[in-house]
Design goal:
Layout (H helix, E strand, L loop, with lengths): L6 H12 L3 H5 L3 H16 L5 H19 L5
Length: 74
């Protein structure tokens, strides 16, 4: 992928809108994908406790922004 603002990053960010962590998986960042998915899934599953749902919503937004701003190391 070319870098921030590239088509790949836009696609990854759009993937994260639907499933948190999917965009990181598209970018090849497996550990980040698992982390975002687990945090969001557990937080959304415990939505009645309010605080985990807020944390999950923040993590979901963070996943979207992280995928959009990702710059490869090389």
């Amino acid at each position: 992928m070319a870098g921030q603002g590239s088509g790949g990053n836009v696609i990854a960010a759009l993937c994260n809108v639907f499933i948190p962590g999917l965009g990181q998986l598209v970018q090849g960042r497996i550990l980040a994908a698992i982390m975002f998915f687990v945090v969001c899934a557990v937080g959304y599953a415990l939505f009645w406790l309010v605080i985990p749902a807020i944390i999950a919503a923040i993590a979901h937004l963070w996943a979207i922004i992280d995928a959009a701003k990702f710059k490869p190391y090389a």
